[in-house]
Structure formats: C-alpha cells, structure tokens
Design brief:
The chain has about 240 residues and is of the alpha+beta class. About 55% of the residues lie in helices and about 15% in strands. It folds into two domains: about 150 residues, no CATH class; about 80 residues, Alpha-Beta Plaits. It contains eight helices and six strands; from the N terminus they run ααααββααβαββαβ. A hairpin with a 2-residue loop joins strand 1 and strand 2. The radius of gyration is 27 Å and the shape is elongated.
Length: about 240
C-alpha cells in the first residue's frame, strides 16, 4: 500500500472488519430476539458491507493518490451507501390492514450502515457510542415506550355483525356511547347468500379507536360480547416494529 494518510496496515483493516461484525451483530441480536425478518446475520452483513465500502473509498485508491489529475474524495462512496440502504429498509416494512410493522427494523438497518461507515473510517468512539445508544433504545426504551404509551395508542377492532338495515350505525353509536373515539372505520359488505338458511353473509366492520383507559376497553368488550347482532369481534394486536 501507499504511504501517509491514504495507507493502512492489514492489522488495522482486520480490526475494523471485526469491530463492524461485532457492532452489527449486537444490534441484529435484538432484532433476532424480537423475531424480525432482518435479524442477526442481516445486520452483520449490512455493517460489514458499509465498512468495506468506506475502507475502499478511503484506502482502495491509494495507488493513485500522488497522480497530478486525481482528486481523492473519501465521502463519495459513503454517500451512496446512505441513500442505497433504503431499498433494504423498504423491504423490511410491511403493512397488514391497519398494522404497519418493520419501521424500527428499517431504521436499525440504516443506522447499522452508518455505524459501518464510522468503523471503516476509523471513527471508533462515535461507532461505539452509536452502537451503545442503539442497543439502549431497542432494549430499554422499547419497554418504557410500551408502558408509557400503551393507553394513548389507537386500538383496532374487527367485528362481524348480522346483515340488517341500519345495523352498522347502531354498532358505531354503541362504541361511541362507551366513550371511545372512532378515528377510522371501514365496512366490508359482501352480498352473498348462505345456502343453509338463505341469510346474507355477515358484515365486517374495522374500527380504529382512541381509548383513554383499560377500564373503558373492558366495558366496551363486555357490551360487544353480549350484543345479539355481533357474531364475533377481536382486537387486532399491533406487532412490534
């Protein structure tokens, strides 16, 4: 290799690659533990890849550093990593009805790429500090967030009711009388007739509710369970992101 600022020893290269594997693996362990698709190995590969690109950007072209018409720009390839990692993050985001999952995993992939760039550039303190803060956010802040915001989050309910004129409006009024605030509603009505008793198929209603306390949710569930025109109902559980 060349000399000066554009040179690096093989031991230093190995150290940065190993540190990138450790940092990415630590973040990936939390995602793997939470049973997300982008887990342990994915985060290691992202961090290693961004580290390798950063090393290439800084030291890979050292042979041309002394050329008169060559201008070295170590940040050029790094900028492409930050924008290019978006395709992998977008693949981790999934939507299932009202539920959107994968946002935190996409963000962790993006920040792991940034950690890899820091490691590749030899910015050890920032890479170590960022890894620590990311792990703190994923492990500890995740639990605090679930406890603190659990009562302020929107609840999602799916109901199946008998197909009668005006029945959907009655159910909406019942929900609102319990103190719940309906922020979104969708009704799926299929005009099919059952061959057994010549009755129309049930109507499916999906609610997005804002409920201030758990007691209100329990009271609402009791009224829904005893209502003669409600065939079934369930609360849609939002998966961790």
């Amino acid at each position: 290799m060349g000399e000066g600022v554009w040179a690096i020893s093989y031991w230093e290269l190995a150290l940065r690659v190993v540190f990138a594997m450790v940092a990415g693996g630590l973040v990936g362990l939390e995602r793997e533990w939470s049973n997300h698709a982008a887990g342990f190995r994915t985060h290691i590969l992202v961090c290693l890849g961004s580290t390798s690109i950063m090393l290439l950007s800084i030291y890979g072209f050292s042979a041309f550093a002394d050329e008169a018409n060559v201008r070295m720009d170590p940040a050029r390839l790094a900028a492409q990593v930050i924008s290019g990692i978006g395709f992998l993050g977008a693949g981790a985001i999934m939507r299932n009805g009202f539920t959107i999952s994968g946002l935190t995993t996409a963000a962790s992939l993006w920040v792991v790429a940034a950690i890899g760039l820091c490691v590749g550039a030899g910015f050890y303190f920032v890479s170590f500090l960022t890894t620590f803060v990311v792990l703190f956010s994923l492990f500890l802040l995740n639990r605090w967030e679930k406890r603190f915001f659990s009562l302020k989050r929107k609840r999602r309910l799916e109901l199946k009711i008998t197909c009668r004129a005006g029945q959907a409006n009655k159910i909406v009024r019942l929900v609102e009388e319990e103190g719940a605030i309906v922020t979104d509603i969708s009704i799926d009505k299929k005009e099919t007739i059952s061959s057994d008793n010549n009755q129309l198929s049930p109507v499916q209603i999906k609610f997005v509710l804002r409920i201030t306390n758990e007691a209100m949710l329990i009271s609402l569930a009791d009224h829904l369970a005893t209502h003669p025109d409600i065939l079934s109902f369930r609360q849609v559980v939002s998966h961790s992101t």
